[in-house]
From TrEMBL:
Positions of the Acyl-CoA oxidase/dehydrogenase middle domain: 127-210
Acyl-CoA dehydrogenase C-terminal domain ranges (all copies): 240-371
Enzyme class: oxidoreductase
GO molecular function terms listed in the Swiss-Prot or TrEMBL record: 3-methylbutanoyl-CoA dehydrogenase activity; flavin adenine dinucleotide binding; monooxygenase activity
Short name of one Pfam family: Acyl-CoA_dh_M
Family matches, as SUPFAM superfamilies: Acyl-CoA dehydrogenase C-terminal domain-like (SSF47203), Acyl-CoA dehydrogenase NM domain-like (SSF56645)
Classification lineage: Bacteria, Bacillati, Actinomycetota, Actinomycetes, Micrococcales
Compartment(s): Cytoplasm
Pathway assigned in UniProt: Sulfur metabolism; dibenzothiophene degradation
Protein known as: Dibenzothiophene monooxygenase
Amino acid sequence: MEHAAKARDQDEHERLATRFRPLFQRIAEGEAERERTGTVPHEQLGWLVDAGFAGFRIPGDLGGEDARLSTAFRLVAELAEADVNLAHIWRNHLSFVEDRRYDRADPRTDEWLRRLGSGEIVGGGWSEPDTDVGSVRTTLLPDAEGVLRLNGTKYYATGSVYARWTTVLAADEAGHRVVALVDMTSDGVAVGDDWDGFGQRLTGSGSVAYVDVAVPAERVFSYAKRYVYQSQFYQSALNALLVGIGNAILRDGIAALRARRRSHGNALVPEPVDDPELQEVIGRLAANAFAAEATLLRSLDLVDVAVARAEAGDTAQDRASLLAVGAAQHAISTLVLESATLVFDSLGSSGVSERHALDRHWRNARTIASHNPRVYRTRLVGGWALEDAARGDTEDA
């Protein structure tokens, strides 16, 4: 039974991947140049929307693929190999899709799922600058005429420069957390596009300010009704991006070594591509990429289980998937960051040329790995493992 389910999962992935891989290759062709010049990939995003990339998780009765979450993340990883900036902007969009899938009973849900599937991109506004973790200063309060007005500033607003809409975490009049779906063309919305990180430069992850922005009541959603596997979702999205970077490092390392003509005085052979020491470096890149992807796939198997339980009405947090995703975060980030440095050992001084732009892989990987600091996630994984072991000892006794 399990083997049959895995075969179905693989068939689903291959069917969709085969459809999109030619487009991913087209996107990859100009990615390094866009990174060098700071060219925002609006055109390439349009290609993805036109091809139906937004419809993976949209239910079949609403015109989507109704693909498993694991399939969606595997496709995000393939897109990240082509352009990790472009892949990252889908994170908040896909999260709002999960919100709506999880709350199909809401009469607004089906309309929004159709719109999301058609490519109305959603960004996110969750974190706030200069506030304690968990606090929300952004407010959604009625004015004298009863119109809800949004006021506040968000940072790390990934996808903001591409988005038609953005989801904004705010506090309502009663102090309850709500999610406001904001039209980015509204009066009072100011996109800073001021992300100053050394990686993920084209993701629109800077600030967005909201000043007396009118929000219709029908675009306000309860934060408490969000999907229960949010942690697994957000971390798996980052893990998928890192896997894509790892595969891109291998691809670019192979291409650069094959193009290298000048050897070194200490080399064992005159042709760099035939040098066994340099081949060993490529082998390590390949092994790291393989291990990172295998780790992602194993963790996504358990995420699919958590999603299925949630869709069946189980609101309990799924410990096994949390542990798997947290462990995967540590393993994948370690492997990819190693590869991002190791690739230069196969290329010599010419490898640092800006025409190769190989430094972008380390910068992007380091930025993503810093997004949710892995030291905390690894500590949580250790604590959970110890708790599970203690529970097992007690049961045995």
